[in-house]
Amino acid sequence: MELNRRNFIKFLVGGAAGIQLTPLPWKLTDDIAIWTQNWPWVPVPPVGEFIHEKSICTLCPGGCGIEVRKVDDRAVKIEGRTDYPVNPGGICPVGMGGLQLQYNESIRFTRPMKRVGPRGSGVFIDISWDEALTMLAGRISGLREKAMPEALAAVDGNPARSTLSLMIERLVKAVGSPNYVRIPCAEDTYEMANFLMQGTLGPMAYDLENADYVLSFGSGLLEGWGAPGRVINAWGLWHENPAKKRVKIVQVESRASSTASKADRWIAAKPGTEAALALGLCHVIIKDGLYDSEFVNECSFGFDDFSSAGGKDRAGFKTMVLKKYSPAKVAEITGVASDDIVSLARDFAGAKAPVAICGKGKGSLSGSLYEFMAVNSLNAITGRINKPGGILVHEPIPLSSLPEIDFDDIASQGLEKPRFDAAGSTKYPFSNSLINNLAAAINRSPESPVDTLLVFAANPVHTLPDGGAFRKALKKIPFIVSFSPFRDETAYMADLILPDHTYLEKTDDIVWPAGLQYPLFGLSLPVLEPVYNTRNAADVILKLAKQIGNSVESAFPWKRFEEVLKERAKGLYSSGAGLVDYDGTNPVWKRLKEGTGPGPDYASFEEMWKKIVSGGLWYRLEHTYKNWDNLFETPSGKFEFFSSKIELAVNAYAEQAGIDWALRDMGLAGKGDDVFMPHYEETASDADRSTFPLMMLPFEIINLTSTWVPNPPFLNKALFDTQLRGDESFVEINPETAAKYNVGQGDRIIIKSPEGEVRVRANLFEGAMPGVLFMPLGFGHSAYDEFSKGKGVNPNDIIHAGKDPLSGYPVWWNTPVKIIKV
Amino acid sequence: MEKGHGHGNSYGMVIDLDKCTGCGTCMVACAAENNLAVRPDESDKQRSITWMRLYKVTNGKEFPHTEVCYFPRPCMQCDHHTPCVSVCPATATKMDYHTGIVSQIYTRCIGCRYCIAACPYHARTFNWWDAYFPKGKGLERYLSPEVSPRMRGVVEKCTFCHHRLMRAKNNAYAEERRELEEGEYITACTEACPAQAITFGDLKNPEHKVSELVKSRYAFRLLEKLGTEPKVYYLSTKDWVRRMADNYLPGEFKPIAKVKLG
Asked: For labelling, which of A17, A170, A358, B54 has a CA lying 20 to 30 Å from the CA of A455?
């Protein structure tokens, strides 16, 4: 056949038609489909045996029970435990996403390292554990040889009371330094308020589940306050049956947070005026005679007027409140209508089991001392202290304390020197740690008084306010050691990295989950083999102590951290009470009301310890209610509306240069007897309000971490696109305020404060108080990986933290700002 | 109540919006359970892959009367004329009359995204890219072998954690049972919710809590007027929240007189 044009086309068409009759095209399409779905880079998760292991989540001080689903040695899912009394099955989104913190080399340190690049660049080289420990031990021994052990300091963000934090404090002390500094949190303020009014040192314990009226002064019940698994479960219980709803929730907050807008009633008080509101409620309750006269008359001090030693007439709490906190006056201060104040007070006093709670947001920021005292007074006048559904007063959990340290001469001399942050001095007599003061002390002096800084479970560069004051301080410190498992901003400033295990790889304890109403000791266990060359920080401390030698070595006579935990647990056994079994069928809060419980469910210490190791907990049901006669350990032996301790402390400080000077220097604006009682004073600010006419408030959300723990990337899915869009975060602003500055939805604005400026986008939200800008905490990382780095801005960069009167803690709620449209 | 065409079960969900706190644990639990891909930028919500997604609504009232409510939205598992099933040219999605669950078969999906257009609830998302796992960082180690990771070019959606049904059934068969007990099969979001806002069960089984809850006067579904018969119900005592669920003509929405509390 001749190959001409005609035949050629015939051939092509015939061929094309013919192929359609063969399976070829269908086979090819199928193959293409299969081929394009089998890229070698699409991961195929290996199969294996399913194993479930139980532990406790220690990502926050809440300590919820978790169960980790494993496939062979790989963890694939974290779920809540139903046989753990804190959280009956549910956990928070951060805990749920925990595996993304475990398996991510971009955000974890995989081995000990030392810095070679400039500070903050994150350039490190690998070293061995021996080399790293020798380096650090040598450095600390050197300080001791130079007789300046106080130049060692530690910043610790581990939960209060945990054994690990005791070990860190012990190390610093044994070396001879008083400079053990903690990251501030609401519980610090709470403990101070309790110490002043009740004289007790037990932790925050609210019997929320048994209350029928919860008045929350800004506590983010739905934002992650306390143990989120417990509090949100309580929320579910409160809303179990809409027809028979028994519990009323009232939220005092300046923004329609989830808690505020889901509460039965939202009271929008101006930020920082909560103390005035609490006292206004006290005013109405006292005036209407709705207070618990039995408690007030028999068990309190300073409620009525009294004469002090020397026959001086003193005004009591009642007189002060009646005189200065009338609903009209409080309405003026707080912006809450006086009718609302009156009805709220009557509702509160009229409820069967009301409780007023404090600690704003998640409770990871310190609060205002007088505000906490005011809230405490509200609970006291209604007789809600140590009653079911109220505030329970406990002794600290009966864990054995560690043996006394036998200090050598160098250590004893070092410990006599004053703390760099002046906490516990005559000026700040009630504070344990003032990290902002530490930063200021370093920034103030030409050479850093701190030579070596150890950082544990903390990221102060990101989480502290004042536009990077702490970062500036770090630059001056000659040697910084980070024990963080994560490549966070503070670790980037470090010279030596001694990475800890993650919470799933190590043994740790939670001593009394935040806010829980009964004593509970939880043991978190390694559910995974360490995936990298990391070590439990507590074991590193033991090794380090051995290398430093002398009294430091003798202060740590243990080989492994587990021995320390076991030794402390002996105290639980010798307390002769407590249970280690819990099956989830009968919630602890239900049984707690009776005040009694069965005897210990173990016969020997070894049996108890074995059960704690397998079940992860020890808890106690017995509680003595209403034991007001012998409950309070104040100088008067009663609940003190008028704090003798404040009076003593202020008078002691006044010996230096007179009372007026003393009050001013302690940051107090109040006068006379008011300062010894809960009172409201406007937070001082040196900023010019005509230049900065607006206020900026940071707020916390449950699906974004704002502590030292990185944010699991899954949580980015749960952020709304009015919170983060691309790399830009949003500020919430009332439409009315926005209109004043001609700002529309999504507009880019610059927020300027005396500390600095940030660029954000505006989200117009009716639930934001006019005149106040609300910025979420947790954005704006310069460390970590592409899932968090460079996303949004950090409000701490512009927060202007003054000092809380008397306590000296940072104030997060008082930043004057202005906005400039871009 | 007549549900579905076949016999067997009709799994459904009731979400109590008064209990829901908007914490997002359901979203994270779902993502972790079902190997959802995470991209560095999840803020573009049209590209972000979510099976369970949280929506935030407000009553629009002025300060301080503003209220916020959250709608967790899984796949509605529409029972009637399932919109995605009717349009799929590749038979990659179908409704199982024995369970009421709408499946998605990735290897059949040709990526035409017709189902995404058809779904009135935006419950389906498309893999514009392969799952993002930075090389050598080990992030893929948490992937669960129970659910296959998806490849680019396919549509995915909530399956009511179908593998959990398989797991529960296997366990039951091993014990020589044919029927599952209530609670034996629940989705990851149900299990994770710290407020216990989600109830899951068989709508056809009168002994299951869900079949009781859907009779509540406060129960409603999203876009009910479309007649797709979703098997996801919501509860809310708030009129303004229930009004959000559909497009009502003036006067059409019937508020429920507030019950006197306590």
From this structure: A358
